[in-house]
Amino acid sequence: MTIEVSRLNNGFTVATDRMDHVETAAVGVWVGIGARHETPQLNGVSHMLEHMAFKGTARRSAQEIVNQVESVGGQINAYTSRENTAYYLRVLAVDVGLAVDILADILQNSTFEAEELERERAVILQEIGQCTDTPDDLIFDQFQETAYPDQAIGRSILGTADNVRSLDRAALDGYMRGNYGADRMVLAASGKVDHGKILRLAEDAFGALAASDVPAPEPAAYRGGQHAEQRDLEQLHLVLGFDGLAYQDPDFYTMSVLSSVLGGGMSSRLFQEVRERRGLVYSIYTFNTAYQDGGLFGLYAGTGADQVGELMPVVMEQLFSIGDTVSSEEIDRVKAQLRAGLLMALENTRARAERLGQHLLIFGRPIPVEEIVERIDAVDAAAIGRLANRVFAGVPTLAALGPVGPLDRLAGWTARPNAAE
């Protein structure tokens, strides 16, 4: 067992995954705070914090941060999701101390200087504009908001342009200090690392950080429904989905298999039936998004306005029949794909640190690979059928962007095949 986990007195978690055959390390801090913890007025603040973390501290300017990382051949990056925010570096093993020091500095001593804030504000506004101009990105925000209307979990991670223009230094500093508590942070390191050394570095760098007193976010309440936006585009972008599963749901791994059978690759049912046999789409795939208290199963399709009338009945027939028609050959193929993807990720230090940080935030413990494989292997046709009946019996969510045409068509797009019979 290469994974070791310790907790400092303030609740800060330190976890390492040793890989003796490499000479590098991935080191990051995963924070259990994301877009769903924001108020409507602060929507976008988590994402702006992620951007501003690299823009200067009391000890380092923005230029010094990137210079110190790149002068040792390292890489630094971050991302924001709805439930957490991550900051991470990839460095040579000898530079792990520098990585921990920079992470501690940006997460505790960022200054949010006015000049840097205005510059980054302009960058984020461009990012929002780019999303608005990219229909196969924008459609997912519209789908999320339709599935979870008037809720933090349904709002865009980027925030609104008005919010981004109004967020000031006080808002950023207050949000970070109020939410980035020691008990909501996991420092995860993977690669050629020594747990004792990482633990000592973390104690020195994060040992004085206070715990947080953050209330639980409002529960996710799936609603579903339809949203359509007419645009003069060549393609019609569609996302169709249903109420999904939380991480802790007993059928979580069954959902992974179900999703992959339907639209997880070129051999999947939807790809073969919709694109290869009928040529109705350029792109079609399924996705499975889990949260602490809910989730979404969905599929994306990019099609033409003239093809959608043929496309949707085919898609719905595949969804509604999968529980009765899934074969052992399909299940075995998908299991092999999932196992291979899982095991291939073990060769990547970044992926292993990511998995470790996420598991500790979500489950409170690292989930052994063997346990995951065992859960995947236990999925059979009966489990697929039970889950399909559970999920696809619910209220659908449909978001459409592009040449939608008469809006009354939407109601028919998600009808069960032969519903009138």
Relative strand content: 15-25%
Structural class, from helix and strand content? Answer: alpha+beta
Low-confidence stretches: none
Q: Major sheet, described briefly? A: 6 strands, mixed
Distance between the termini: 58 Å
Tell me the total number of β-strands.
11
Rg, alpha carbons: 23 Å
How are the strands ordered across the major sheet? 1-2-6-3-5-4
Level of helix content? 40-55%
* Total of helices: 16
Overall pLDDT score: 95
List SSEs in N-to-C order. EEEHHEEHHHHHEHEEHHEEHHHHHEH
Shape: globular
List keywords for this structure.
single chain; 421 residues; alpha+beta; six-stranded mixed beta sheet; five-stranded mixed beta sheet; 45% helix
What does this structure look like?
This protein is 45% helix and 19% strand. It has 16 helices and eleven strands. A six-stranded mixed beta sheet has the order 1-2-6-3-5-4, sandwiched between helices. A five-stranded mixed beta sheet has the order 7-11-8-10-9, with helices on both faces. Helix 9 crosses helix 12 and helix 11 packs across helix 15 (381-392). The mean pLDDT is 95.
Spell out the blueprint of helices and strands.
Elements: E1 3-7, E2 13-18, E3 24-31, H1 45-52, H2 62-70, E4 75-80, E5 85-92, H3 96-108, H4 114-132, H5 135-147, H6 161-166, H7 169-179, E6 185-191, H8 195-206, E7 225-230, E8 236-243, H9 252-263, H10 269-277, E9 281-291, E10 294-303, H11 308-325, H12 328-345, H13 349-362, H14 369-377, H15 381-392, E11 397-402, H16 409-413
Parallel strand pairs: 2-6, 7-11
Antiparallel strand pairs: 1-2, 3-5, 3-6, 4-5, 8-10, 8-11, 9-10
